[in-house]
Write a structure and sequence with these properties.
By secondary structure, the chain is α/β, with parallel strands linked by helices. Helix 1 links the parallel strand 1 and strand 2. Helix 1 packs parallel to helix 9 and helix 5 packs across helix 6. It has ten helices and eleven strands. The relative contact order is 0.17. The chain folds into two domains: 185 residues, Rossmann fold, CATH 3.40.50.450; 132 residues, Phosphofructokinase domain (Rossmann fold, 3-Layer(aba) Sandwich). The strands form two sheets. A seven-stranded mixed beta sheet has the order 3-2-1-4-5-10-11, sandwiched between helices. Strands 7-8-6-9 form a four-stranded parallel beta sheet, with helices on both faces. It binds 6-O-phosphono-beta-D-fructofuranose. The site of 6-O-phosphono-beta-D-fructofuranose has 11 residues, from loops.
Length: 351
């Protein structure tokens, strides 16, 4: 067989660990030919298709390397007409390269395309990847743990400068419309307030939390803000970041000094931490075993400490997973006094 591997969407630490595991496990067990497709499905769309062959010596030194040796492509959504022709060009590339299947490592956008290609009869196996951890069906995605590690480290650094200056420090993190990065990173880093898209911001509750800290002599507060958070009356000019708008509102209401740090693409860079290296390696081997069994048309979902497969035909299109408000991480945060930007009815802790 001849199998293509592609990495799609936003890059993240762990992608190369997954590629390495696929090449090592397939080459050690079979004589399947492996093709690395350049820049995600875009490499198949090109004529001639852009690819590299992948042998064991191509993956010897990439385990700890951030990013992806195959390159990636984070396309904005295409309108229907061009989406259909985009798919046809990918299928043409697949046939020109005489591929028997593709391993697609990617997030919601990549898996949506993979689902369409699977419906067109192309053999696909999907591996979950995104720092956002917002893919439906799966508890975890490659890149999330390393991002949370970086966010928590950033919060710890902000604590010391906030305390030295009696300031409110706001740290804006990625995650699109889901708050997994903010909630897990904030909990791990000891943030005092965590604002996520799943809970609309109530400025009163935020100010109450900051003033309660001041009352016990804590004249500083660290707030983690998810980039997709919902705030009352966003200003006309969309240029300023959402955390800058919140900072302005808080300094007005509390007459306190505020500073904003937008972590940006630092959350996508660097070496994968051990948790992501292990997850990526296990997912790579699991996908390789599916290839050997020619068990295509499946997306691999992490279910606690196990993996299961979800047929692409059952994978919901264009759905991003959000934090459910009865998630125990929400209960945990509020139970230890972290404000999530909302009032908790007195005496009623979330269950
Ligand atoms: O989906 C991953 C992600 O990092 C989001 O959290 C972020 O909003 C987006 O990608 C940034 O996209 P780009 O790298 O194209 O700017």
């Amino acid at each position: 067989m001849r199998i293509g591997i592609c990495t799609g969407g936003g890059d993240c630490p762990g992608l190369n660990a997954a590629i390495r595991a696929i090449v090592k496990s397939i080459k050690k067990r079979t004589n399947i030919e492996l093709i690395g497709i350049i820049n995600s499905f875009k490499g198949l769309q090109e004529n001639p298709p852009q690819f590299v062959t992948l042998e064991l010596n191509d993956v010897t030194d990439i385990y700890f390397k951030g990013g992806t040796i195959l390159g990636t492509y984070n396309k904005s959504s295409l309108e229907e007409a061009s989406y259909k022709s985009y798919l046809k060009l990918i299928k043409r590339g697949y046939e020109l390269l005489k591929l028997d299947g593709i391993l697609a490592i990617g997030g919601e956008g990549t898996q949506n395309i993979a689902k369409s290609l699977s419906e067109m009869g192309i053999n696909i196996i999907g591996i979950p990847k995104t720092i956002d951890n917002d893919l439906p069906e799966t508890d975890r995605t490659i890149g999330f743990a390393t991002c949370v590690d970086l966010v928590s480290e950033a919060i710890i650094r902000l604590q010391s400068t906030a305390e030295s200056h009696d300031r409110i420090m706001l740290l804006e993190v990625m995650g699109r419309d889901s708050g997994f990065i903010a909630l897990h990173g904030g909990l791990a880093g000891g943030a005092h307030i965590i604002l996520i898209p799943e809970i609309p911001v109530d400025y009163e509750s935020v100010c109450e939390r900051i003033l309660a800290r001041k009352k016990i002599g804590r004249n500083y507060t660290v707030i983690v803000v998810s980039e997709g958070v919902k705030i009352p009356k966003k200003p006309e000019d969309q240029t300023s970041s959402v955390s800058a708008v919140i900072a302005h509102e808080l300094s007005k209401r509390l007459n306190m000094d505020t500073r904003v740090t937008v972590l940006g693409h630092l959350q996508r860079g660097g070496t994968p931490i051990p948790e992501d290296r292990i997850l990526a390696t296990k997912l790579g081997v699991f996908a390789s075993l599916l290839v050997e069994k020619k068990d295509f048309g499946k997306f691999i979902a992490v279910d606690g400490s196990h993996f299961r497969t979800v047929d692409y035909k059952d994978l919901k299109r264009k759905v991003r997973r959000k934090i459910s408000l009865d998630d125990f991480t929400i209960t945990t945060a509020e139970s230890i006094g972290i404000c999530l930007g909302r009032k908790i009815p007195s005496g009623k802790m979330p269950r």
